[in-house]
Amino acid sequence: MTIAAMATPDIIRTGNDGLDTILRGGLPANRLYLLEGAPGSGKTTLALQFLREAVRRGEKALYITLSETREELAVVAASHGWNLDEFDVFELNSADDVLGTGREQSILHSWEMELSGTVKLIQEEVERIQPCRVVFDSLSEMRLLAQDPLRYRRQVLALKQFFAGRKSTVILVDDLTGSRDCGGDTHLHSLCHGVVTLERLTLDFGAARRRLQVQKMRGIDFTAGYHDFTIKKGGLDIYPRLIAAEHHSSFVGDPVPSGVGALDALMSGGPLRGSSTLVTGPAGTGKTTIALQYVYAACERGECSTIYEFDERIGTLMARATAFGLDLQKHVDSGCLVIQQIDPAEVAPGEFAALVQREVENRGVKMIVVDSLNGYLAAMPQEQQLILQIHELLSYLSQRGVVTFLINPQQGLLGTMATNLNISYVSDAVIMLRFFEAQGRLRKAISILKNRAGPHEDAIRELRIDAQGVRVGEPLVDFKGVLTGTPEYTGERAPLLEAR
């Protein structure tokens, strides 16, 4: 074998599409890897997926278990609809299997005899089966048998040398029991060709969050950092961290109209493709309805759109749209519009980013509405990480030419407004909605605070949403202080909108 061939080993798939994406194809073959994580993090499930991929390829696979019984493994496999009989399982969970039931007292410690005997039986089983893939579960049992860190390290090194040259890809599973501070064994990391760590995080409220990290992988370029994942029927559903720079596509940045001429005129024809627009204001000012107007116009043009509802029920949203003359149901029935209800307590930010990416890649979505950012904030309590997540997601959507609307409710109804999320600098355009009082009525005002994509009108206009739809009135030139919610009338009679 040439030096070049040794430097570029074959790449094999792991049986998990998400992990293969993170590894940019899969694992270098015929190497020793460490899969570590606390109990309940999903190690056994991922290891079974790894072996099932070998079965799919017509290769022999071996699962060596020192801790769990075959029946316990069968329960895990059955929960995913798998059959444990597809590959060999070598069960070794008692000292009697190693030393025999008729053993006598010896001057040697029983753990010394048990450890050496265990390793010998494992080697004999591997010699008999000649597997292409091996899972060794778990190292914590060997660590207990060794009793001594140096002896344990020597045994792991012996296993590595035993498998070297046998054309076997081996995964060592470690549940971190008894390892240093339960943070992983650094000596073990140095022995293995690659290390994959699974974590299970318990939040104050909601479902447990799980994430994966490839700590090292010799010889390949992988996506570093944390990647969220969930355990579902069929295995681990891993959501690779979104990197916007890897998803650029060409598109024409033309304005996207809403179908309401006066509304489009505020932004010189509408937001441009690939831009993000923040619609902010207190509750009840019409933020969602403004976004729905753009979505309806996009669907009328035949452009697929998706609405992610964090706060409002889909039924309420549909009823409101119908009351304002927007028949969204016909577009839902045709498949042009998809409305997804998102439970922020159950969905991790990485999973949500994966949902958005699948809509763009699979359905060719041209417009996305996130309603609202408060719900998205609830899905990720760490605000700094939230800003980074949103920035990367918006950058990805911009690279794909998708128009994005972010609904940002503000605290309070009248007077000075406040928000618990400073996100305005991330978006390309900001639409501000406000209440104001005039002629004994509670009215609404609309203004464009910024538009990076082009010119915008700086006037403050009245906004009215009723059975006639969305209407934008004349500039409120006879008022001052409208944006504060306490305007002062300075003219004779303002040209205000009335019900038709």
Task: Based on Cα principal axes, name the global outline.
Answer: elongated
CATH superfamily of the largest domain: P-loop containing nucleotide triphosphate hydrolases
Please report the first level of CATH classification, the CATH class of the largest domain. Alpha Beta
Helix content: 25-40%
Total domain units: 2
Radius of gyration: 30 Å
Largest sheet: 9 strands, mixed
Enzyme class: transferase
GO molecular function: ATP binding; hydrolase activity; protein serine/threonine kinase activity
Organism: Sphingomonas xinjiangensis
Pfam families: ATPase (PF06745)
If you had to describe this structure to a student in words, what would you say it looks like?
It is an enzyme of class 2 (transferase). Pfam families: ATPase (PF06745). Residues 10-252, 254-486 form the KaiC domain. By secondary structure, the protein is of the alpha/beta class. The chain has two domains: 3-101 and 108-241, Rossmann fold; 246-489, 3-Layer(aba) Sandwich (Rossmann fold). 33% of the residues lie in helices and 25% in strands. It contains 16 helices and 22 strands. It has helices at residues 3-7, 17-22, 43-56, 70-79, 95-99, 110-129, 139-146, 149-163, 186-191, 261-265, 287-300, 314-323, 329-334, 349-363, 373-379, 383-399, and strands at residues 11-12, 27-28, 32-37, 61-65, 88-91, 133-137, 169-174, 194-201, 209-217, 226-232, 235-238, 276-282, 305-309, 337-341, 367-371, 403-410, 429-438, 441-451, 461-466, 469-475, 479-480, 488-489. The strands form four sheets. The protein has a nine-stranded mixed sheet with strand order 5-4-6-7-3-8-9-10-11, with helices on both faces. Strands 14-13-15-16-12-17-18-19-20 form a nine-stranded mixed sheet, sandwiched between helices. Helix 7 crosses helix 8 and helix 14 runs parallel beside helix 16. The protein is elongated and about 100 Å long. Mean pLDDT is 87; it is low at 101-111.
